[in-house]
Amino acid sequence: MAEKKILTYTGMKKLEDELFDLKVVQRKEIAQKIKEAREQGDLSENAEYDAAKDEQRDIEARIEELEKLLKNVEVVDEDDINLDQINIGCRVKVHDIEFDEEMDFSIVGSTEAIILKGMINKESTV
User: How far apart are CA 19 and CA 10, in angstroms?
Assistant: First the structure.
């Protein structure tokens, strides 16, 4: 059985929105690109067709990845967070002694972690 991925509600919603966009919007757009490229004739030397098929493959791979991820997700209820411990869903403030500055971080699961946006993995050494 696959390991559960822990997400905040916001993180799960973001992935669901991406999946919806891929399935509803981008699939339709790429189908149109492929149709237009086919209408140009010989597919053996048609760069637009090859590029569109590559893009379609990438979209389908991401859809599969997101569906698999969302099937094994555990959502952290941010209302039930124990504020006596630092865990997923918490916001923390860290003081960097060397540069004498404070930084704010959101603690998230590994799937959501984006350090440049202040979202760090619960396993981070920070």
Answer: 14
Q: In a structure prediction context, what are the per-residue pLDDT tens digits for the chain, which is 126 residues long?
A: 567 888 888 889 999 999 999 999 999 999 999 998 888 877 777 888 889 999 999 999 999 999 999 998 888 776 666 667 777 777 888 888 888 999 888 888 778 888 888 888 877 766
Q: Which two tokens stand for residue 79?
A: 């209302």
Sign, CA torsion 51/53/55/57: negative
Dihedral (Cα; 8, 4, 116, 90), 10-degree rounding: 40
Write the DSSP string, 11-22. HHHHHHHHHHII
> 95: exposed, middle or buried (C-beta count within 10 Å: 0-12, 13-18, 19+)?
exposed
